[in-house]
TrEMBL record:
Belongs to the binding-protein-dependent transport system permease family. CysTW subfamily. InterPro entries: Bact_Polyamine_Transport, MetI-like, MetI-like_sf. GO terms for cellular component: plasma membrane. The chain crosses the membrane at residues 12-36, 75-94, 106-132, 138-162, 183-206, 239-265. It holds the Pfam family BPD_transp_1. The keyword Signal does not apply. It is a multi-pass membrane protein. Keywords: Cell membrane, Membrane, Transmembrane, Transmembrane helix, Transport. It is found in: Cell membrane. SUPFAM superfamilies: MetI-like (SSF161098). It comes from the Bacteria. Residues 71-258 form the ABC transmembrane type-1 domain. This is Putative spermidine/putrescine transport system permease protein.
Length: 272
């Protein structure tokens, strides 16, 4: 009787998970299919032939949209945000291992931007730049806006990592004569390296597809999310779906590459 009940619960959970996956990836599959629309096809089903014309069209001169430029800007911005997020999150995690005056207030201040609507943050930064007579750009104002989104997540992740990190490893290294820097570089850093890679991936992906905090801060040149949004109002060919497919594949490749790097580091650490 109990086994039958567990079986029904298992099938119910499996069905629920299947519905969730369909809801999550169903729209992506529609974009993927329509990106292979025939040369004379439109933006809706059914397909009028099958071709890769729209992928080729991405690399041609466009009457509307700057695919290559927006992609390069989003990638560069994501890398910049990733580097700063990893460094600051690591330093914050190390600092908060010890109690100091104002630690609680500083923590709440660091994560406060998570509860502020993203569009308000974007508007506020844009207004501040204008008040100081500075032109908002993707590599200054948008860079700062993205950090208000990625840094709190990075800091929270590093807090969780160091809460589970045993100081016995550092004590053992110091007992063997290692300096503070040697203890950090040869003991602490290799052990938390997979977590740092995860923080970096998190920072990059949050920045790469951020729309709301970029809307008022990107300035003259769009990032990829803004470019895609603009294309939805004036592009009438499946090239929009081709762009969505390419960016989605790129995102999955970044995730797969990062996971592969984490697995490689863990295996190398176990061998050594």
């Amino acid at each position: 009787m109990h086994s039958d009940k567990r079986g029904r619960e298992f099938y119910f959970l499996a069905l629920f998970f299947a519905i969730f996956v369909l809801f999550l990836y169903g729209p992506l599959s529609a974009v993927l299919i329509l990106s292979f629309q025939g040369p004379n096809g439109g933006l809706t089903f059914p397909l009028n032939g099958v071709s890769t014309r729209w992928f080729v069209n991405l690399f041609e001169t466009q009457a509307v949209g700057d695919f290559g430029g927006s992609f390069r800007r989003s990638t560069a911005l994501g890398v910049m945000v990733m580097i700063v997020t990893v460094v600051v999150a690591l330093l914050a995690g190390l600092a908060f291992r010890r109690k100091f005056a104002g630690a609680t207030a500083l923590f709440y201040l660091a994560v406060a931007s998570l509860v502020v609507p993203s569009i308000i943050v974007s508007l506020g930064i844009g207004v501040v730049f204008q008040q100081f007579g500075l032109e908002p750009t993707w590599y200054t104002s948008a860079f700062g806006a993205h950090l208000t989104w990625t840094l709190p997540f990075g800091v929270l992740i590093m807090f969780a990592v160091f809460n589970r990190f045993s100081p016995a490893y550092e004590e053992a290294a110091r007992d063997l004569g290692a300096s503070s820097w040697q203890t950090f570089s040869n003991v602490v850093l290799p052990m938390i390296a997979p977590s740092l890679i995860g923080v970096g991936l998190f920072g990059f992906t949050l920045s790469y597809d951020e729309f709301a905090r970029t809307l008022m801060t990107a300035g003259t040149y769009n990032t990829l999310p803004l470019e895609i949004y603009g294309m939805t109002t004036n592009v009438t060919t499946p090239v929009l779906y081709a762009l969505g497919t390419v960016t989605t594949v790129f995102s999955f490749l970044v995730i797969a590459g990062t996971l592969g790097l984490i697995v490689y580091i863990n295996r190398r650490r176990l061998r050594s």
